[in-house]
Design a protein that fits this description.
Protein name: Zinc-dependent metalloprotease
Keywords: Hydrolase, Metalloprotease, Protease, Signal
Distance between the termini: 56 Å
Structural class: alpha+beta
InterPro entries: DUF5117, DUF5118, EcxA_zinc-bd, MetalloPept_cat_dom_sf, Zn_MMP-like_bac
GO molecular function, one term: metallopeptidase activity
Number of strands: 25
Number of domains: 3
């Protein structure tokens, strides 16, 4: 808001202007002629001094220290300037942001890569702009100008020229303060996370580090974000819970981020491009090519890969001109560095197969190093932590022109090391099954997957949970010491496995969640095989641990090496090929996709939520072997073994009071993964990545009816049976709380977690997508082969019959079963909402749901009339009948 200046300040300003005008007038007065009468040359009038004109370059940077580089940096006290050579204007380079220090909660973590853009410096008068070029739409030839006019670039930041151009170098000086703003857009990110308005506080922000070299200039800005006040909570709890303010800072109104701004020169000679093939999983750089208005497909996908060239092109095995170097950050604990190095160098095996010796190097950043490998010139592996963190990430920086990978910074949350051995003791968690992602997160993952950027990787945390389960079971079965050498060897194996996975991402490989399904169950039992070949055909899978059943021979527990798919994917991306043979040779390599050990399925195939629910039961996280249903049954047996051992184990003095709870937690997470995988069989489709006219396979094929029925039987017979979840009352009553914590939790409730587990199955089996596939399944099968197909009516009828089986037997209804039945009625209510489900695409499903609901009402009324039932059972039956009656009447009224 404009505020008038106080009277005294106005008077002072007027006096200043008057004196300034007088001083200007004095400088333009003609000198008095000499007294001797001799004529003297008349001096030309000087132009008025422009108070806004830049000062001379050398005056502005007087006393400043120069850091020569791509864009030289000048520093004096708290002032920082960038010097931009004249030749650098209107010339593209790569601008990127990394987050070195962060908040430590809700996705705001340290050691993370943020956005990058192809940018140019542009000068408009005395203003310098940093402009992000629009690389999403491109064209050559006649249409280039039209496309450039049609799609706008974006302004990242701008500043006023700080001095006159350098007298010799003719370069421009700008105040680097133009970067002490919300360049990454974190104010919006913070509002999304906390629903509070935070903004950058420029007065308390500064540059904590600067660096410059020939191809790189780096500014590290310590940015203060603040809000004036935290609003009071509402008097009445809202319908949608409001996120709490930040919990990890001393004062929720104030915190700092460190943003590393990288200005990196692009390669003078662009790398050769290699195009994507959908039969393999590589990250990509995609754009719309509008050069030709005849081509029906305008999307172009460039495969992301490092520039790797042989020193001796004629040699069968040659070192590269420039190896891919990964720096181990000095913040990695020393005891894990050897395992990290082993995970990095394991990939050299794949590169040796295509003629490169020592293609990858691992180097250790010295502990006394004064440089940060978050810059854009050092690929790195870094540790980070947070209050609620549990993932690893392997993002890349690429040249948008070609897809060439220029930089990568792997961020490993400390759960990857800490949790690998001590998850069962140190990681505070409540008993839960797998958490469902919010719609916001699902949408983000769908968008990233479409763009080829599905980089978020929870493998580290999930692998820690896997090992927690394995250690718990082996400790109960064999007396394994959590702090002993065998447990430490497990931890090191998990570190190597996880690093191999993340290095694969930075080499350009996407997830392959179908790889483990291509190893037979018999091979998994053969230790001689698994020690050499591993337990999956790709380290890019999320691999379950190969735990034998009680009485079976021990085998390889953790994956330890690359799989067949990894060698194949590296060959396609990196094999040196003569230009005239490249197309044919790449087609030959990709054509191997029909080989069973090269099976591929990405994040979308596995399921990321919404419409992309994952309908191929062979693509899953944390399954193992070629029979997912058999694997799920095995995990149930292993969990039940652990439960049995926990209930007979005597607690030791001084042990963690939450130990048994955490063991139960890890076992139920195992079951949750199995339930999600098995339920995919029902209404499932086998999906194959087919290139029309080339791949001799059918893209989609319904799962065999017998497999669908077996999966349904497992769910209804095992998962819905209260007998599968019986625990001794003495055991449940003995589970204490952590009384040192304010949020200490509540007494252990097995019914709560069992209902969550059962809900995962019902989520899938009663979902609109599953109903749609079951209804349309016959259209994928020739008419002569349709006999015996499973129908929607059969699936929903079987579910209802299993859930309400007591209505036929006339027996009491167990409390666990009453919970399940109420959940079923709640879901029926959703299915019977005609306004939501009466559309043409769901009309058949609505009719089937209504038909079964009418039958259920009749069965409930008949069962309620039987004598001898407990009050709880009779009340439950009566309430269920009334609810269903009301739903059916409401659906008729609405229609």
């Amino acid at each position: 808001m404009f505020q008038p200046l106080p009277t005294r300040r106005l008077m002072a300003l007027a006096l200043t202007l008057t004196l300034g005008a007088c001083a200007t007038a004095q400088t333009t007065i003609t000198p008095i002629p000499p007294a001797n009468g001799a004529s003297a040359p008349v001096a030309a009038p000087r132009p008025p001094v422009d108070p806004t004109a830049p000062k001379p370059f050398l005056d502005v940077i007087k006393g400043a220290r120069e850091q020569p580089g791509l864009f030289p940096i000048w520093r004096k006290d708290e002032k920082v300037w960038l010097e931009i050579p004249k030749a650098a204007f209107n010339k593209p380079f790569l601008f990127s942001v990394n987050v070195a220090n962060s908040l430590g909660e809700r996705g705001l973590y340290a050691s993370q890569m943020d956005d990058s853009h192809l940018v140019e410096w542009r000068r408009i008068g005395n203003q310098v702009q940093l402009v992000a070029l629009n690389t999403a739409f491109r064209a050559e030839g006649d249409t280039k100008a039209m496309v450039e006019q049609s799609f706008s670039p974006s302004l990242i930041t701008a500043g006023v020229v700080a001095a006159q151009d350098h007298p010799d170098r003719k370069s421009t000086l700008v105040d680097a303060g133009m970067f002490l703003y919300d360049i990454p857009g974190f104010s919006t990110e913070l509002e999304v996370k906390f629903r509070l308005v935070y903004g950058p506080d420029r007065a308390n922000s500064y540059f904590e580090a600067t660096r410059a070299e020939s191809q790189l200039t780096t500014l590290t800005a310590r940015m203060h974000y603040a809000t004036a006040r935290i609003p009071a909570p509402p008097l009445v709890p809202p319908a949608v819970p409001i996120p709490s303010a930040p919990q990890t800072t001393p004062d929720a109104r104030s915190f700092f981020f460190s943003f590393v701004y990288n200005f990196r020169a692009l390669p003078e000679t662009p790398a050769k491009v290699r195009h994507l093939d959908p039969r393999l999983g590589h990250f990509m750089t995609s754009y719309v090519d509008l050069s030709d208005d005849v081509k029906p497909g305008t999307r172009v996908h460039l495969l992301n890969r490092w520039r790797l060239e042989k020193k001796d092109p004629a040699a069968e095995l040659s070192e590269p001109v420039q190896p891919i170097v990964y720096w181990l950050d000095k913040n990695i604990p020393k005891k894990y560095r050897e395992a990290v190095t082993a995970g990095i160098l394991e990939w050299n095996k794949a590169f040796e197969k295509i003629g490169f010796k020592n293609a990858i190097e691992a180097r250790q950043q010295p502990d006394d190093a004064d440089w940060d490998n978050m810059d854009a010139m050092h690929a790195s592996v870094r540790w980070f932590t947070g209050a609620d963190v549990g993932f690893a990430i392997g993002p890349r920086r690429v040249d948008p022109r070609t897809g060439e990978i220029l930089d990568a910074d792997i961020g490993m949350s400390d759960v990857f090391g800490r949790g690998a051995r001590r998850f069962v003791r140190d990681d505070v968690s409540a008993l839960r099954v797998m958490e469902a992602a919010s719609s916001e997160q699902r949408l983000e993952r769908v968008t990233r997957a479409w763009r080829g950027e599905a980089e978020l990787c929870t493998y580290a945390a999930e692998a820690a949970s896997e090992l927690g389960f394995a250690l718990d079971l082996l400790a109960a079965r064999e007396g394994l010491d959590y702090d002993g050498p065998e447990a430490e060897a497990f931890a090191q194996a998990v570190v190597k496995d996880t690093v191999m996975h993340e290095i694969g991402h930075t080499l350009g490989l996407k997830h392959n969640f179908r790889a483990s399904n291509s190893v037979s169950a018999q091979k998994l039992k053969d230790k001689a095989y698994t020690d050499v070949h591993g337990i999956t055909n790709s380290v890019m899978d999320y691999t379950a641990y190969n735990i034998p059943l009680k009485g079976e021979a021990p085998t390889t527990l953790v994956n330890s090496t690359l799989g067949a798919y990894d060698y194949w994917a590296i060959e396609y991306a990196y094999k040196p090929l003569p230009q005239d043979q490249e197309t044919a040779e790449l087609a030959r390599i990709a054509a191997r996709s029909t080989e069973p050990e090269l099976a591929y399925g990405d994040d979308v195939d596995q399921g990321i939520g919404g419409a992309y629910d994952g309908f191929d039961p062979r693509s899953n996280q944390f399954d193992l072997g070629d029979d997912t249903l058999a694997f799920a049954k095995k995990r149930l047996k292993l969990s039940q073994e652990l439960w049995e051992r926990l209930q007979t184990r005597k607690p030791e003095a001084g042990e963690d009071p939450m130990r048994s709870r955490r063991s139960l937690d890890s076992s139920f997470r195992q079951l949750a993964r199995g339930v999600q995988a098995v339920s995919k069989y029902v209404g499932g489709l086998y999906a194959e990545r087919v290139v029309p006219g080339i791949t001799p396979k059918t893209p989609f094929r319904p799962v065999e009816p017998a497999q669908q029925r077996e999966a349904l039987k497992f769910i209804t017979g095992s998962l819905f049976s209260p007998e599968a979840f019986r625990f001794k009352p003495e055991f449940l009553a003995s589970q204490t709380l952590d009384y040192n914590e304010w949020g200490r939790g509540l007494p252990l409730s097995i019914p709560d977690v069992v209902l969550q587990l059962q809900g995962l199955a019902l989520d899938r089996l009663l979902a609109p997508q599953t109903a749609h596939r079951l209804i349309e399944q016959p259209t994928y099968v020739p008419e002569a082969q349709r006999k015996g197909l499973i129908s929607l009516g059969e699936v929903w009828g079987s579910l209802q019959g299993a859930i309400w089986s007591e209505l036929k037997t006339g027996g009491e209804i167990d409390p666990l079963r009453r919970r399940l039945q109420r959940d079923h009625i709640r879901r029926l209510q959703q299915l019977l909402n005609r306004s939501l489900n009466g559309a043409a695409g769901f009309a058949d499903a609505f009719a089937v749901a209504r038909f079964h609901a009418v039958q259920l009402v009749a069965s409930l009324k008949a069962a309620g009339a039987r004598p001898g039932l407990s009050l709880e059972t009779r009340a439950h039956i009566a309430e269920s009948a009334d609810l269903l009656d009301a739903m059916l009447k409401a659906s008729v009224t609405k229609s």
